[in-house]
Amino acid sequence: MKITVIGTGYVGLVSGVCYAEIGHEVVCVDKDSAKIGMLQAGEIPIYEPGLEKFIAGGRLADRLSFTTDLPSSVRRSELIIIAVGTPPLPNGEANLSYIDGAAQEIAMAMDGYKMIAVKSTVPVGTNERLADIIRSRTDEPFDSISLPEFLREGTAIYDTLHPDRIVIGAESEAAAHKMVELHSPLTDQLMVTDIRSAEMIKYASNAFLATKISFINEIANICEKVGADVLRVAEGMGRDRRIGPSFLKAGIGYGGSCFPKDTKALIQIAGHVDYEFKLLRSVVEVNRDQRFSVIRKLEKCFDGQLAGKTVAVWGLAFKPNTDDVRDTPALEIISRLLDAGVHVQAYDPVATDNFRLLLGREGVSWHGKAMEAASGADALCVLTDWEEFAQVNLGQLQASMKRPILIDGRNVFDEENMLNTGFMYDSIGRPSLKQGMKQQMPVLQF
Ligand code: UDX
User: Fold this and answer.
1) Cα atoms in the 13 Å half-sphere on the side-chain side of 117
2) 415 vs 286, residue with greater confidence
3) Distance from Cα 152 to the centre of ligand 1, integer Å
4) Is 255 domain-assigned?
5) Fewer CB near the terminus (10 Å): N or C of the chain?
6) What are 379's strand-pairing partners?
7) Cα separation, 144 vs 116, whole angstroms
């Protein structure tokens, strides 16, 4: 099939590459000529493990191309996939101006029947709004399709080529059939439904996963007070197939380009139809507060006296294997440390440049190596669960620090191992092994 993908962000670029990989002829379009120039030269504008092997070296060159010329690529394609951003407006609603703009440009370029699919995360009703925009500008026939995307950054290629399910929202049976045909090499878990339900599935899925994370984080906070270990609790819960083991990793909360934006957008969507989504409001609130547990733990170590201390931070990206810093918990944690008069020594394997721009203030020294960042520090905070942190030589780390204080915001380290070191170690929801902790625990009376 001849496919145009509009937008070369994570979703657009990865989808385009994967459709080409399974044999289709794909043109990826973007307004950003610098980005298109990079892609044409075989360079990748985002950090995504595995993506380079598809783009560099021209492996898919015969069926994957990049252009800024939207009209001509629309004209030569049967399927147009819209994968532009829907960033949040100040009130949490999704900004649909890029979607509207794409619809207008597609309408102006159309010269015959097209299938127009939306992969961007959009509020319920957006596909209809898009169809109205197109209909008001052209008489050419088309079918609207909602094609929500569930890929995760860091494993985007794998997720796209091995999806748990593909949801296709379409009113036209012929278009739905073509979409099933297109995606059946990827999975047999194909679900065809109406457009509004498909749009809702995306928000509901992300809201549910965010709920699991906030839930386990609150359980972790309670574990700390009652002397239970959240890792064991999550494992025990996860063995119930109705609950499942994934997304029960306690830490400093979720960040990234989807969960924070989509949870707030769903609260707004519900509000528009006079429904207060109380549960989701709490999920967002719990998530916002959870990141500060690192600061509270640090304050406890230093009797509230953070000013003048040097704190090393490992991990700036919102999760490992990405350089994405959108809504990363590290931003507010580091900002609060700086406000408290702390000098921060920061390290991330790939996200430092992006984070530096995002933070936009002085007071942080940036390091190219984890050990270098920890050197001479009064304490070390781990904010992202990069694999390399767990591999570090703890003896060497301890020797390089001024004080051996380690606050592990992602439960990266094995607690029993830590007990054999001289570290004052604290993590999230795991107080049970701490020396003397059992005695300090309150006697629970019922
Ligand atoms: C998410 C969804 O998983 C994906 O389906 C959707 O298309 C986009 O949003 P992504 O944002 O790339 O993907 O990352 P994900 O791996 O889901 O992690 C999101 C955040 O939750 C990260 O900050 C991660 O650290 C945190 N998280 C995840 C936890 O704190 N605990 C967990 O158990 C899982």
Assistant:
1) 27
2) 286
3) 7
4) no
5) C
6) 311
7) 5
- Does residue 251 have its Cβ closer than 6 Å to ligand 1? yes
Q: How far is the C-alpha of 280 from the C-alpha of 212, rounded, in Å?
A: 11
pLDDT tier, 270 (very low <50, low <70, confident <90, very high otherwise): very high
- CB atoms near residue 271 (< 10 Å): 14
User: Residues 26, 161: one domain?
Assistant: yes
Catalytic residue, candidates 18, 28, 258, 301: 258
381 carries an active-site annotation? no
Contact 4, 77 (CB under 8 A): yes
Is 232 within a domain? no
Tell me the C-alpha distance between 118 and 340, whole Å. Answer: 45
Q: What is the pTM of this model?
A: 0.94
Cβ of residue 255 lying under 6 Å from some atom of ligand 1: yes
256 lines ligand 1 (CB under 6 A): yes
Per DSSP bridges, beta strands 64-67 and 190-193 are: unpaired
**How far is the CA of 440 from the CAs of 114, 140, 421, 422, 443, in angstroms?**
68, 74, 21, 20, 9
Give the end of a domain, one of 146, 172, 193: 193
pLDDT at 442: 62
In terms of domains, do 51 and 185 share one?
A: yes
Position 224 in a domain: no
pLDDT at 93 over 90: no
Tokens representing residue 220 in the block: 């972790």
Q: Which domain holds residue 296?
A: 289-440
